[in-house]
Design goal:
single chain, Serine Threonine Protein Phosphatase 5, Tetratricopeptide repeat, 6 helices, mainly alpha
Amino acid sequence: MAQGVTRFFLGEFDAACALFEKGRVGDPKNRHAYSVSEVEDFYALTLSWLGSTLTNLGHLDQARTQRDMGIQEARRHKRAHTLVFVLSLACWLDWGV
């Protein structure tokens, strides 16, 4: 995910999108292992970053879908840090549209 965020801020949106897509389809078995040891839910964050990236590429409907999925995942797992960050990205996405 860190490489995708770096590409995003460098304006390399196609590369960022590819990296976020790759992270979005990760093995669900590994997700639980990461969620136990990490404060944030990387899957929810990846969905939200993907939404922001798709916004910059002009794919607004897809961006909103990814954003909503990220918010839903963050709420489902009840991770405060993740929810705050995902909602911040959602505001950023809506502000940019």
